[in-house]
Write a structure and sequence with these properties.
This protein is mainly beta and 295 residues long. The longest helix is centred in the N-terminal third of the chain and has 17 residues, at 2-18. The protein contains 3 helices and 21 strands. The chain has a 15-stranded mixed β-sheet that branches. It folds into 2 domains: 33-122, Immunoglobulin-like; 129-245, Immunoglobulin-like. The radius of gyration is 25 Å and the shape is globular.
Length: 295
Amino acid sequence: MKVNSILWVVISCVLSNCSKVIEYELPYPGDQLVVYGLLTPDEAVRIRLTHTVAPLGSHPKDLSVAGAEVKLYENAHPLETLEYAQNGIYRSPSGFRPQTGQLYSLTIRAAGFPELSTDAIEIPSQIPIDSYNLVDSALIALNEGLSAAQLNISFTDPAAVNYYELVVETCLNMTDCEVGGNQWLLDIPETEQQRCGFAWDRNLYFKDICINDTPFTLKLGLETSTFTRSGPMKFKQVLIELRHINRSYYEYLKTHLQPEDFELAFTEPQLLYSNVKGGYGMLGAYSKSRLLIDL
């Protein structure tokens, strides 16, 4: 034991004498504004404003920015100045809701930060759900012991390039609905799903590169029950939202997909999509159609 201890001391001394401290300062352009806004005709305009921090060193837990001048433009014309609410949230003082087909942008000034501006984005049109049907089939749920069904949703894909988000909320009762339960695409081969779109936070995002027919029928498998303390319980209803989203929102979420585990070591760093100048963040938009289905 004594010999081993001496050897460890010798090795430690050698390593400490051979090591060289290399000072390296990570590049950082200084604090900049970060804006996140998602505009829709269904809600009054609101955005969230925070700021960046240096990669090293201490920084405040609350990164929200108050006291900024946030101006909203419609078709390049000044519309109104958003008012500060709390926690970095700025909202329309008049309760203004964006209009389909119009272009909107922001300019933001705040003391101590460079001026920020966003690209002008167009509010997409609403895409109606033409028809649907729910088939209690022999689908096998992803979780053993639960039931599953096939949901077919038909809609007409407009000309040009379009992007979509499918939100599925399952309801145990009329007031208890949440994004939950597993769902999966049935009509697109698994090998093609990455090319067609992606899943993020239990929602499905896809572009019409894989839509060949119009009207198009999206076939979705979904679990129609969940585990509770008293055992499996069937959902009462399912709430479907078909969102017609703009490209900025789609690309922003797509770049949030990060490799996991050992794949991270062999992958180049992912740069987040941004349509902002003088800062970071994203201004996106969507319109939606809603459908409540009894199970």
